[in-house]
UniProtKB/TrEMBL annotation:
Any Pfam family: His_biosynth
Gene for this chain: hisA
The protein's name: 1-(5-phosphoribosyl)-5-[(5-phosphoribosylamino)methylideneamino] imidazole-4-carboxamide isomerase
GO biological processes: L-histidine biosynthetic process; L-tryptophan biosynthetic process
Catalytic activity: 1-(5-phospho-beta-D-ribosyl)-5-[(5-phospho-beta-D-ribosylamino)methylideneamino]imidazole-4-carboxamide = 5-[(5-phospho-1-deoxy-D-ribulos-1-ylimino)methylamino]-1-(5-phospho-beta-D-ribosyl)imidazole-4-carboxamide
Family annotation (InterPro entries): Aldolase_TIM, His_biosynth, HisA/PriA, HisA_bact_arch, Isoase_HisA-like, RibuloseP-bd_barrel
Keyword Amino-acid biosynthesis found: yes
Keywords, comma-separated and alphabetical: Amino-acid biosynthesis, Cytoplasm, Histidine biosynthesis, Isomerase
Compartment list: Cytoplasm
Family of this protein: Belongs to the HisA/HisF family.
One GO cellular component term noted in the UniProt record for this chain: cytoplasm
Positions of the catalytic residues: 8, 129
């Protein structure tokens, strides 16, 4: 069970948004690469990097900065945010990225996901963000009429490596993850699921460990680490002890 720190980049800085709202940001560092290096040193096996400007603009904005993080890290980096064409995926893959996360485009152009999986086998994950079980797109600005579980079932045969599932009603709210929605999503697919959003205490992380048998194999933690509600090394050791 992987404990994955998040590095969200907006305006070249490391920030956290509340429920994905662009006007509700907290800046934690002016140097995202330095922040990624910190989590690397703390023992992270994988770091989740998001180009928030890219997610809102629909195109990569902080690509050079993210490539520098990939180059300088000793651990795996997964990247999302505004990735809407094969050229961008290829640029990240050539830089050494572990996984590329496709979000909005997976819901709007599923055939693109199929092509990306064919071109870059094992490198493509789909990020599915949901509010009340329905898929949210375009940096969470819009909510579609498609169920998150239906989108997962549609993506699964295309060759994606797994899913990142975010219940956006809990993201950045420090209220704990929505275990029921995460369980329902994980049970709807046979692929690995990384849960994101809502972890604010060690107990929340241990609750997610209980979903391991449903297919949840990792958790992304953001705000709680930056607010120091959770100590990364402490939560990592406790999760590893309980996950077996």
């Amino acid at each position: 069970m992987r404990v994955i720190p998040a590095v969200d980049i907006k305006g070249g800085r490391c920030v956290r948004l509340t429920q994905g709202k662009a006007d509700q940001e907290t800046v934690y560092s002016d140097d995202p690469a330095d922040m990624a290096a910190h989590w690397d040193e703390q023992g992270a096996q994988l770091i989740h990097v998001v180009d928030l400007d890219g997610a809102f603009d629909g195109r990569p904005v902080n690509q050079d900065l993210i490539k520098n993080i990939i180059y300088s890290s000793t651990v795996d980096i997964q990247v999302g945010g505004g990735i809407r064409n094969l050229e961008t995926i290829e640029a990240y893959v050539n830089a050494g990225v572990y996984r590329v996360i496709l979000g909005t485009i997976a819901q709007q152009e599923p055939e693109f996901v199929a092509e990306a999986c064919k071109r870059f086998p094992g490198k493509i994950m789909v990020g599915i963000d949901a509010r009340d079980g329905m898929v949210a797109v375009k940096g969470w600005v819009e909510v579609s009429d498609q169920k998150a579980t239906d989108l997962a079932k549609q993506m699964e045969p295309m060759g994606v490596a797994g899913f990142i599932f975010t219940d956006i009603s809990r993201d950045g709210m420090m209220q704990g993850p929505n275990l029921d929605s995460i369980r329902a999503f994980a049970q709807a697919t046979s692929l690995p699921v990384i849960a994101s959003g809502g972890v604010s205490r060690v107990e929340d992380a241990l609750n997610l460990v209980q979903l391991k048998d449903c297919g949840v194999d990792g958790m992304i933690i953001g705000k709680a680490l930056y607010d120091k509600s959770i100590d990364y090394r402490d939560v990592l050791s406790q999760v590893q002890a309980h996950a077996g």
